[in-house]
């Protein structure tokens, strides 16, 4: 762990490094009690004049030997985690031999042990735990890596690039040497040593080169790699067709690791994945998981261009690669499956996680201006809002020019470390548009709000829309300038038909996009004989909050007939949301008829796909409700949501039952959009049916669980039972599940999270679960299953005792010493304490204070806790 006082790093302070590293030669000798790393760095002065000191980042290493051009380095010092020495030449080879201890590395950054294998995670700043280096993304070198280890224990030795040599060594040891000819920053370095099995395939690129594809896993996971391999081939093909991007090395490898801080990592030619994000089988992976794995495999593969060939100049540019790559993987999933459904899910995700982030103490721009610990900025804002910003550029320039801009970007900056400005400049150049104002999306935090008013004039047959945009202050930014906001729109007549638009605004008739750039804009629409119903922000054309007070009849028309399925979804969700919040505040004492009208329209709509129908019938989640409330009374919110759920369950019990039964299928499992949609809708109707309270429904759920030949049906059955009050049945099924699946890591992770998120859970039950043989505080997936599941279980986390807050704080304090990056993530559930009722807010605040009072606080936890308390 780092012990230095944390310093704030600022974008405005960026300067180029004093030296470049042009080639990096590594020998990594793995031994049981330590690993020896020998590096040879070819270094060159950047610029001329007097030679400045060379500063190399390095932590947790023991220096054995150092030389410059074979002469021992005697004169150096070490401060602020940097080794500082004075070169006497402008070009030289720096060599260092150091010892590190991967077995004791619980931070899972740098080189560490995951189960039986060694692996690495270097983004953002893990390479400095492996060897002394200028560990910053603008320093790009070619790499040669030789790994040596015991042959019996570690028969597989991998690194970036192409394999060039392998052989035997004395004492039962062996080695392998890899060479990566593409320059890259150190954060893309990777190496793996293990007893791994692999599945092979090949891909022929569009220019006819044959690439070997290999997926490696520990033996117990061998049967779960096929789906990822198929996903990889689909990704490679799609990136050639949609973005003109071809793969460049002779080999592409993926390794599955059971201990991993995040989802996966795009190391050049050697992607390392969290096992949960790559290993799939129908018995152990739900449909959601299959879709997520396909998307993550694609995401990491797409980084080979958007991230690796063209990388980030500094970490403030993180969204350059992440926003763009999330956008790219989103397009991929939309093309593979169902575009509308993908959009609905993405927007739902954004509103559930990113809007609250923008609305809380950790709000930051897509391009942050400063940080203490960069690991804290791998956020939904940088990733998902960043992808929305790229999506808006696409909307503004159109598909064809967007592709041209992307081609220009890759061509112009290949092999370079660049900025978000460079990316936007390419889009400006190909389209001739000026994006100066647009770039506020990168620099201003917070979700803009658009307040809309309408007026119809029957005399002149005109209709007016007035848009007023505003954005609440966020930490460090009290005033916001107007954003450029693309509004994809239609005007509908009373039957839901789209009318032709003739207006005086900045409206593009080809794309049906109206662009707003002023604080206030009034647009007049001509030639309308009756008042239209405006369908605005179609497909969520901008990440904004919309306030539009309009007649209920208009909202009902959109919720039942808008031809844009996304907007229909959005209108229905608005009705559910208003209903729940009004029940909670006491403004309503019963569910209004409008809800029945939209639910019936959705239930009876024969045109809708099962998947879309399910999205229309699902109630808003707690994070969404919380984000839309000014003050939060947790238990009233629970009661209100439950009241609506109950109402729908009872009112439509016959439909839920018949839907559940008619959607059953005995066909063999198939993962595709249609089948996943069927299972999704069946799972949802089963939940409503069980909620209505009959034993028949509960028996059906248990039978579905017991007879399941795939994980989706199994979870549908089990979750429905876990939501009931049949304690005996719940217990029996959980015991049965564990007995059957205790040797399967992914299934055990699910088992843990079901108990903390799918049913009511108390702090004492959590403590017991953490004593269970299946739990391991050093394993991030297990921690996320238990603590993450609990923190997302609104009813239990915010129960009347408030014990959950203190419990979470204690876990963060313990984790701080084990894995700071993971620990810091669990501060978020407490950060909105100011918006809860005063008594509850105090309890949450005191939990945060407890965290801040922990000794030896990591910069990760310190930064998050300080912000949350500010
Ligand atoms: N670049 C990886 C991805 O999004 C994520 C790496 C995150 N690592 C970290 N230390 N925060 O594909
Ligand atoms: Zn990424």
UniProtKB/TrEMBL annotation:
Residues 446-548 form the Peptidase M1 alanyl aminopeptidase Ig-like fold domain. It catalyses: Release of an N-terminal amino acid, Xaa-|-Yaa- from a peptide, amide or arylamide. Xaa is preferably Ala, but may be most amino acids including Pro (slow action). When a terminal hydrophobic residue is followed by a prolyl residue, the two may be released as an intact Xaa-Pro dipeptide. Residues 81-188 form the Aminopeptidase N-like N-terminal domain. It is an enzyme of class 3 (hydrolase). The keyword Protease applies. Residues 553-870 form the Peptidase M1 alanyl aminopeptidase C-terminal domain. Its cofactor is Zn(2+). GO terms for biological process: proteolysis. Its EC number is 3.4.11.2. PANTHER family: PUROMYCIN-SENSITIVE AMINOPEPTIDASE. This is Aminopeptidase N. It comes from Reinekea blandensis MED297.
